[in-house]
Every structure is written in structure tokens, then in C-alpha cells.
Automatic annotation (TrEMBL):
Residues 5-182 form the Hydantoinase/oxoprolinase N-terminal domain. GO terms for biological process: glutathione metabolic process. This is Hydantoinase/oxoprolinase family protein. Residues 514-683 form the Acetophenone carboxylase-like C-terminal domain. Residues 203-497 form the Hydantoinase A/oxoprolinase domain. It comes from Salicibibacter cibi. InterPro entries: ACX-like_C, ATPase_NBD, Hydant_A_N, Hydantoinase_A, Oxoprolinase-like. It comes from the Bacteria. GO terms for cellular component: cytosol. It holds the Pfam family Hydant_A_C. GO terms for molecular function: 5-oxoprolinase (ATP-hydrolyzing) activity.
Amino acid sequence: MTSIKVGVDIGGTFTDFVFLESKGNRSFGKTLTTYPDPSDGFIDGLEDNLQKFGYRYEDIDTIIHGTTLVVNALIERKGAKTALITTEGFRDQLEIATESRYDLYDLFVENPFPLVPRELRYTVKERILNDGTVMEALDETGVKETFRRLREDGVEAVAVCFLHSYRNMAHETRVREIAEEVAPDLYVSLSGEVSPEIREYPRTSTTVANVFVQPLVQRYLGKLENALQARGFSGNFLMMLSGGGTCTVETATRFPIRILESGPVGGTIAGAYYSERSRLGQLLVFDMGGTTAKASLVDDGKPLTTNEFEVGRAERFMKGSGMPVKVPVVEMIEIGAGGGSIAHVNRLGLLKVGPESASSNPGPASYDLGGTRPTVTDADLILGYLNPDYFLGGNMPLNKARAYAAIEKEVAKPLGLGVVEAAWGIHEVVNENMASASRIHAVEKGKDIRDYPLFASGGAGPVHISHVAEILGVDTVLLPIGAGVNSAFGFLTSALAFDFVRSFHGRLDTMVWKAVMALFEEMERDGKTLLAQAGVTEEIEILRYAEMKYAGQTHEISVPIPAGELTVQSVAEITENFKTEYAKRYAEANEEMAMEALNWRVVVRGPEPHIYLRASENQATAVASPKAYRDVYFRTYKSFRQTPVYERATLAPGVEFNGPAIVEERESTLVVNPGFLLKVDELSNLWMIKEGAHV
């Protein structure tokens, strides 16, 4: 009996499917994302592809799903009517925030509007001190009266965030117990469970965001589970976490904020997988889909992660202009530059592309589904990069005449340009935007981007990767098979995992290690319980980290903490680990200043999935034969050039040829610029190497 794992990634334009057999065979599917309910496209697309490839629901061992549902709901403010209950005197914490301005010189700076308006922010009498002791008991009568008012106001969800509950959440727990008695229909999230760490504003913001989307996520995942079970699926249904692991639907429903970026991280996780398989220590993952483009770094085969994230920034590249969320997230920079990004001429007469997207409804003009505004896909079609008769393998023909008319009306005529010049301008603006974002991301991490080979991912990524590589000065590009559905494949390479955090502040030389060990043991125990609920009881890996800084500094860095019992004797090793991590980021560590730790983290991870990829069985001669030729526009020639077009499935391992060239597969199209040599390896991955490069 065939056993398969399925990855399903719902993006803004397309829903992607990857089917991986235990024997290593892979099959790919792609369908338009459905609106307003993306779960319809999930079920219909899954069913269509199962029939297409001859699988049954009974054959599916595991489905891993990633989605942008949560982040979109937060950005668009399309969640539940939410209230906040907090300590008396802290009603306006969400608006006071950190009291800092993300742009000191902008007199009209706009801060993100809180998810909870002031009239739905309630306070009750209680007070817990920063050491966890109770200063003032919880006013339970006041809590009951608050919930009565919440029900009268039609509130659906409630966030509970008391002062210092990260040290003692007894009062928050009691509030939930009262809610279960007097208002059992309300969704309730406690900050001591969602984000049990110091700093009031981000903890409150994260808890509010969690419960704001909880009803939406529960309905969405519940509908999917019921639909799958009704069709005969009885395997594991898992969700991708923003930090790179996977979790059960039950966990995702309880902590939906943890799946905030579950869709976009798939490309980075796939990049990390191929980094190890290809013996590349470093990669810059360039993932361009239909709605956005993402850039992320992979170091030593692992994606860079952070515990701080911002949603819905008022200024895209301005830190502090968004809503803070304290959850583990794979670090990436994201811009509104996908295949569906709309090109327009602004009031100053300048060409702009994005961030608004045509998505799948109505889609780019060339989709012929009602869209009339020009997009990146339309420009790529005019330039000859895309074959109008082979988009999605020919299942979705593109209308070149509509693309031409849209660019002519919206861009070419306003700028006084020809349509081809306008299309090239759209293409080039997008490339420059993505290259600039990638460069910023690398510089912020203290990295030289020229040291990072590019990894192409997403349906539009391979079309633009050559030009982006040239702009960045990168010599090597790796393109895996099925790059257009690469995020969905990345899901399948991820292990079951969950992150935990506890705050306990102290200097390293005077740390109470028994207290720290108690926190670690609690987190490890909780993690093992979660994995056991998913059926994982063996080969469990536990990773420890501390967020540390020099005394007097404001920001912490993540430092690995050794396994086993921590005592005074552990200080020397932890000190060296801190200095190593500090020097990586800031070039030099201080040998004299005292060090302190603020937060302690544990990652509890199940065994890595055994992913076996079958080597190519294509025994054809290592000579490439074009299937066609067509006119393609290249910057090198500043004109169209008759260019060979290859079918990727016919390129056997060992094939080499020089650009310019086009390589087509069902899910994406690779543009090989002049000056690049293309090679095919034993797993049918494509490598583009700049002429004269030493690799």
C-alpha cells in the first residue's frame, strides 16, 4: 500500500500541493486560492490532485498545512470582537506602548491602532509583584461583573493580561475559571500561557492578537478536519509553526498566534533542507509567489529565527511601526512584490509596483478572469519569460492581448513609453525592490550578501532570480525541482516541535540556578506532553537557550545553554557561549562587563522526518535539446533575442549549457540570463553559475 505525506500551502494567489511517497517519488499540484473561504480551494484542490495522481485519502499518512490566514486577519482587522481585562491602572497599555516614536522627525507619525478599542478595555483590582508574591487579592466580584458587561456588549473573545503574571498566573487562571462559570461561550486567552515573559506591552499585544483570531482559526481548522474525515482521511493533520516546527491542530487552535507566518516560512525551511543536502553552509532564500516576495538567510544549514515580530507595519521597513508579537518566527523580510503585484504611476509620475496585489480574484489582466490592472505577471508575459500556452502546464492559458492592453493604458501611455519598455520597467523595479530588501536583511544581521548563494522558490522566483543575482553580485543560484510549490515541500521536512519561554532575571554570577532548573524542567515536561498527544514519545530532542545581555543594555541576544544540571560550574561555559554569539553579531565581546539573563527558552522537538528523494531515473544522454525557441527580452542585449526553451523533465543529470535560455516546468519557469552556466545535478536540481565565478 502506498503511503504518502501531503504539504498544503495556501498563499494569496495560489494554493500549492506536494505529494511525497515513502519511496521518494514526488508529485506537485497548484490551484487558484478561493475567496472568501480558502478552505474550499484546499479541499477541492486536494481531491482533484488525488484523482489525478491515483491516490486515495486512505493512502495519506500525514497532511501538513501552512496558511497566511492569521496574519491576514490581523492586518485586515477581521477577527472577533475582542475585550481586554487587565490590572487596575493599566487600561491604556496597548496605546501607551513603549512611549517611543519609530520616526523621530515625522510630526505626523501613525502608530498601529489597537485591536481592542478603549471602551472594551476593562480593569479589575489585583496586584502581583515582580517576584510572584501577591500584594492585592483578585476582586472576584469585579471579575464577574466585568464578564456580565462583556456579554451585554456582544464580545466574543477576551484577553487577560495582569501585571507580572509571567511570574505567577494564579489570578489569570482564576479569571478563566470564573469565565467558565458565568460566560462559558467566550474565548479566553491568558498572557501567562500565550506569552509568559517580561515586558508588559508586547505580552499584552501578543495575547490580544492570539484571542482575536482564535474563533476564526477554530472554525477554519474545524471545517477542514471535518471535511477530510468525511472523505476517509484518518492520518495526522498538522499545522506549520512560524518558528519552523509543526504542531497538532489542537495546539494551533489554542495558540493560533504561533501559526502567524506558517505559510511563508515553508520556503526557508525547504532552503535549509537543500542547504544540507547540497553541502552549502549558507543560502539566501528568495521566495517570490503571487502576492509577496520574501528573503531569508540560512546559516550552517539552519534558518535564522527571532522571538520578536511585528504585524501590519505602518511603514514597511520601519521597526516599531507595527503591532508587536512575541512568538518564535523564522526571520525574513517581506515586500509586496509578487506575480500579482499591481504596477501603477503615482502622483509624481513615478512607476511603482505593489504592495497592492490582484491576488487570484480578479487576478492579473492576463488571467482573463476580470482583472484589468497591469501586474508583474503581465509584464513577464510581454517580455517573453512566460509561455502563454504553458502556464500551470497549459491548464491556465494566459491572454497576452489583455496584458498588453493593461500595461499600455496604466503605465506606458502615462509615462510616454512603448509597451515593451514599460513592461521592462515593471520587471526591473520589482527586481531592484527585492534586491534592496534582501541587502537590508543581510546587513541588519551583519552579513555580506555576496557570500550567500541564492535559492529560488515560489512560482515567480525562478523568473526573476537571474536578474536579482546580478544586482546583488551573487555568483551561484540553486533551483530545486518543483520550486513553484517549494513552501509546501518545506512543510514535509519539518519535525513536530514547540517553543516555551519563562522569565527569570538575574546576573550570571549570582544566578539562582535551582530556580532556573525548575523552569527548564517545567517547560521540558510541558513539551513532552504536547509531543505525546501527537504520538511522539521517543527520539525527542531538547534545546535550551537564554536571552542574555551585558548589564545595562536594553536588548538581549539568544545564547545556547548546555544540557544537564545547571550549577555555578556552568557559568564558565555559558559565558563563553554568550561571548561567541555576541561577537558574531557585534564583532567584539567585552571581557569585563557583567552579564545577565532575562528569559529562558526551551525547544522540544520530535525526530526529523526521514525524507528520501529518489535520484533522477532519466537515463537520457547528458545533452540538452530545446523543445522550442521564442523571442525573449534581456537587459544584456536591450532587445528581444531568439532563445532556446527547454522542458525541465528532459534535462538529465550532467546536462550543462550556457544562457540565455528558458527552462519550463508546470509550476514555474526559470530564466537563465546571458553570462550564466546551467548545470543539472543527480537530484535534478538546477545550478546557475556566473561565468568566471570560483565555486
